[in-house]
Specification:
The chain is mainly alpha-helical and about 130 residues long. The chain has six helices and no strands.
């Protein structure tokens, strides 16, 4: 069975709207990479927030109350430590997202080049001789 060419616009739309679910990797037939990407989107920002909590706590800049309630939300959002943690997670997610875009463009081009090369091979030459 010959591989079919994949559409760059469709891959980009899947990346833009469903990238966190790795729909673009599944579209390219790379299910194992999709699973790794989903884990990457979840764990790397989480680990960056944990690291920023530890750093801020070690410098004594983390002064959250022991038990947070709904009334504490406005003060929490304005807290510099919370802003630092949110910014860290956002920067890490944005870096992964842009990196994934660069990889996606390369993978779609390579997939389409392989599909074009395999479709130009004569039918009898595709089978391996015994």
């Amino acid at each position: 069975m010959k591989p079919r060419k994949k559409s760059m616009p469709i891959a980009l739309l899947l990346w833009f709207f469903l990238g966190f679910l790795a729909a673009h990797k599944i579209y390219l037939g790379k299910v194992q990479e999709a699973i790794r990407l989903i884990l990457l989107y979840f764990f790397v920002p989480l680990l960056s927030v944990v690291a920023s909590i530890l750093i801020l706590k070690s410098f004594g800049m983390l002064n959250f109350p022991k038990k947070l309630g709904p009334a504490d939300l406005p003060a929490l959002i304005q807290d510099p430590a919370f802003i630092a943690m949110a910014a860290t997670a956002f920067i890490v997610l944005a870096a992964i997202w842009v990196w994934d875009l660069i990889i996606l463009i390369k993978e779609v081009r390579e997939h389409n080049e392989r599909a074009a090369a395999e479709s130009s091979v004569p039918i009898g030459a595709q089978e391996d001789p015994l």
